[in-house]
Amino acid sequence: MYTLGIDIGSTATKGVILRDGNEIITMAKVNVGAGTSGSQRVLDGVLSQSGLGVSDIKYIVATGYGRNRFELAYQQISELSCHTKGVSYLVPGVSTIIDIGGQDAKTIKVNNKGKMESFAMNEKCAAGTGRFLDVMAGVLETTVDQLGALSAQANLDMDISSTCTVFAESEVISLLSNGVGIPNIVLAIHKSVAKRVCGLARRAGVSPLVVMTGGVAQNSGVVRAIEKELDLPVTIPSNPQMTGALGAALLAYEALLENKSTV
Amino acid sequence: MYTLGIDIGSTATKGVILRDGNEIITMAKVNVGAGTSGSQRVLDGVLSQSGLGVSDIKYIVATGYGRNRFELAYQQISELSCHTKGVSYLVPGVSTIIDIGGQDAKTIKVNNKGKMESFAMNEKCAAGTGRFLDVMAGVLETTVDQLGALSAQANLDMDISSTCTVFAESEVISLLSNGVGIPNIVLAIHKSVAKRVCGLARRAGVSPLVVMTGGVAQNSGVVRAIEKELDLPVTIPSNPQMTGALGAALLAYEALLENKSTV
Ligand code: SF4
Predict the structure, then answer these.
(1) Which residue of B has its CA nearest to A122?
(2) Does a cis peptide bond (omega within 30 degrees of 0) precede residue A72?
(3) N or C: which end of chain A has fewer CB within 10 A?
(4) So what's the pLDDT on residue B262?
(5) What is the Cα–Cα distance from B214 to B212, expressed in whole angstroms?
(6) Are A124 and B162 in contact (CB < 8 Å)?
(7) Taking every annotated instance into account, which residue ranges of this chain make up the domain ATPase BadF/BadG/BcrA/BcrD type (chains A, B) (predicted)?
(8) Where are the alpha helices (DSSP H) in A12-78?
């Protein structure tokens, strides 16, 4: 029995097809989000990669910011539930989830049954999200992919005093004009994101195992800064951007079983 | 007896010389803030304009973000106290002060004795400050001076949904590319600032007379948007950027009288 989870975020759309609720058949991701053709392209992607037709998929759950705009979904489930489900499946025993996406950040405290206990999120402020890193990479005339490697070369531990993306941008410009090396600035940028997001995580609750997901989990510099800020190791699942879609596919399978048992 | 008030802000430094606590002799303003030569230049300015020497000034009060860095000051007094003093002097009966500066916004509830009763301020987020307008003017390839006149030409009442400067910037770019006219976008920008700042004002308390000060008070579009948002007329004193320095000069005179009476 095949189920599909689709996660329609603000900057990317992700899909996962699962067999019998325990085998990932295929995954797809396109870098366009809600309000675009992203969901159709992801659907086409997972179907062609798996050789399945739409009629083979027995249940579809949509999640993410744009979840209400995908007409083929049987059900919409919140990102928080889907992320919790997906991460708990990949990393049993997870206690704290830190998810930093392109335009938001969320942190979830998970109980020992793998259920969400509390959460804290930032959806309104660019600080502490992927967007903050995009802006900073722009000012530094580099790309976000380079940031992790750059901060590894830092030799000076300094801080950016402004949390706000706009004010931090001015600070970075003045650091550059004062001749501070880019690696040191990037380290400070990563610390700024870490501080902001760990503040959020502490509001939800922090204890090991800490798992990080979302696009920014691919930035090793931010991961290191979070580990330092929390003084705890951070686990990154493979494909950290797919956990929402995976959780949606897992919840689709559970819904299918439930529907069967109630028929 | 001459007193000097100097207001060292983040983006501008202002000075006022007062005779006998009731006559403004001269004012000066330079568009550089704390951490620069701004305070020296303002001092030179007010002295040369008035033909006075430093020794003629009997008491100097410094206020503003950089107030602790001006060595000639006899006393440092908070911006909130100085603004309240200066505005109450210029507009007797003021009840609510809305001050929007280059990088911050503060709102003060004044009681019927002209004393601060409560306040609310934003010093950390660029939204709802002059910086927000600078960023938006940049995206629209215009200058902040033009914004008031532009929004007066609007023919469509629309909103920007993001409060965050960074996300609002993206929204404006997409409005532009969708062919929305600049005057309509500027109106929406002014409404965004007004909403943000009036939220702050409501936390402090709003009742007539409402007085607006700070650099952004010179933007007629923001003033109109605040009047609409509060459904109250807004009074702008002449030289709305000088009220902090004026209040400092007034408090300097009070300090002088007190010192005399205790001698
Ligand atoms: S603090 Fe800066 S980044 Fe955050 S909402 Fe305000 S303007 Fe946006």
Answers:
(1) B164
(2) no
(3) C
(4) 62
(5) 7
(6) yes
(7) 4-252
(8) 38-50
Burial class (CB in 10 A: 0-12, 13-18, 19+), A180: middle
Q: What is the dihedral of CA A110, A115, A117, A123, to 10 degrees?
A: 80
Give tens-digit pLDDT for A195-252: 999 999 999 999 999 999 999 999 999 999 999 999 999 999 999 999 999 999 999 9
**Which atom of ligand 1 is least distant from the CA of A165?**
3
Residue of B nearest to A10 (CA): B167
**Is the confidence at residue A85, as pLDDT, over 90?**
yes
Nearest in space to A6 (alpha carbons), one of A218, A250, A196 = A250
Classify the phi-psi angles of B262: left when phi > 0, otherwise alpha if psi is within -120 to 50, otherwise beta.
alpha
Domains in chain B: ranges and CATH = 1-91+240-263 (3.30.420.40), 93-236 (3.30.420.40)
Closest by Cβ to A166, choosing from B162, B163, B166: B166
Mean pLDDT of chain B: 94
Collapsed DSSP state (helix, strand, coil) of residue B223: helix
How many whole angstroms from its chain centre is CA A5? 15
pLDDT at B260 over 80: no
- Which range has the worst mean pLDDT, A115-119, B165-169, B227-231, B258-262? B258-262
Q: Where are the beta strands (DSSP E) in chain A?
A: 2-8, 13-19, 23-30, 57-63, 75-76, 96-100, 105-110, 116-122, 210-213, 234-235
What angle, 0 to 180 degrees and rounded to 10, lies between the N-to-C axes of helices A165-177 and A182-204? Answer: 160
Is residue A254 within 8 A of residue A92, CB to CB? The reply is: no
- Cis omega before residue B18 (within 30°)? no
Q: Which of B132, B129, B75, B74 is nearest to B105 (CA)?
A: B129
Distance of CA B260 to the CA centre of its chain: 32
For the residues A114-125, what does the mean pLDDT come to? 95
Structure tokens at A160: 């950016």
